[in-house]
Amino acid sequence: MMHRALRAVLLLTIALSSAEARAAACCVSATAFGVGRLLVWEDFAVGVQLGHTRVLGQWNAQRSLRLFQPGEFSDGLTRVEPWVIVRLGERVQAQARVPVVVNDRAAAGLAQVAGGLGDVGAAVRLEAISLGEFERLPSLGFTLGVLGPTGRRAEQVAPPLGAGVTGRGAWGGAVALESEYTWLPWYVRLDAGFTVYAPFRRADTNASQWYGPVVQAALSSGREVVPDKLVLALSAQVEWEAPHSLDGELIETSRGFLPSLVASLSWRAAPHWTLVTSLSGSVWPSGFAQNRDARVGLVIGGRYGHF
User: What is the DSSP letter of 253?
Assistant: First the structure.
């Protein structure tokens, strides 16, 4: 009887340890960079992100970086983005976000602050292979999304400094995949996405304009510093954009390219509540980017998960 009792206790301990390991594996990166995905036991989650970015310079079409001199030009972007994720099934989640953007710009003794609704977005996430579902196999998920033209484009804003730009102002569709592998307390994750936009008529010239397709990729890694509480992560990201088209003619000088780094800290303060903060930078030497801003930014977010 004693041997049977000891054997039962041992088997129960092993089972519980395995369950805890699987639970931690599925959740270590779920909220590492903000919105993320639902934890396996959550029905839905809501949250908000507050971010501010400062533009320090710009790369031109020849990949040359020009840093702004003190007092020459000031450009800041503040973004508030509430979001929601709802579970539709064991492997299906739906999400939506509604960004509000405020720009503050100053140059040559002039200043302008303007903002409004950005491009709203919605998506469905399909989980083909769950994290930890198969031993030694990474997870695999797909996201299908749509962007609404609720933001204002450059030609739609008022002078003098064009601070009223809040988005691309065009319909867009996106597909993305994510794959992740975890060996506690570490994880590594690969994300890749492709976005295409619908053509639109410019408000100033009535010309037909079409943004080029955008490809994004990110390689992230993180560590669970405090089990089920604190996760530190670092992400290397890159974005390519093909040339725009104006009245059917490609504008070769409109190509875009930008690498960036993002460091994040995710803290589960309570079973339902998670706080996330991240610091991003895209300031590199000349030749490393094209037709993009050189920026530094800080994002702070809060998340409530219902279960």
Answer: G
* b (16+ CB within 10 A) / e for 248-283: eeeeeebbbebebebebbbebeeeeebbbbbebebb
pLDDT at 251 over 90: yes
| Model pLDDT for residues 88-100, shown as the tens digit of each residue | 999 999 999 999 9
pTM, entire model: 0.85
Helix (H), strand (E), coil (C) string for 171-238: CEEEEEEEEEEEECCEEEEEEEEEEEECCEECCCCCCEEECCCEEEEEEEEEEEEECCCEEEEEEEEE
**One-letter identity of residue 52:** H
**Is the backbone peptide bond immediately before 160 cis, with ω within 30 degrees of 0?**
yes
d(CA 11, CA 7): 6
Phi, then psi, of 168 in degrees rounded to 5? -90, -20
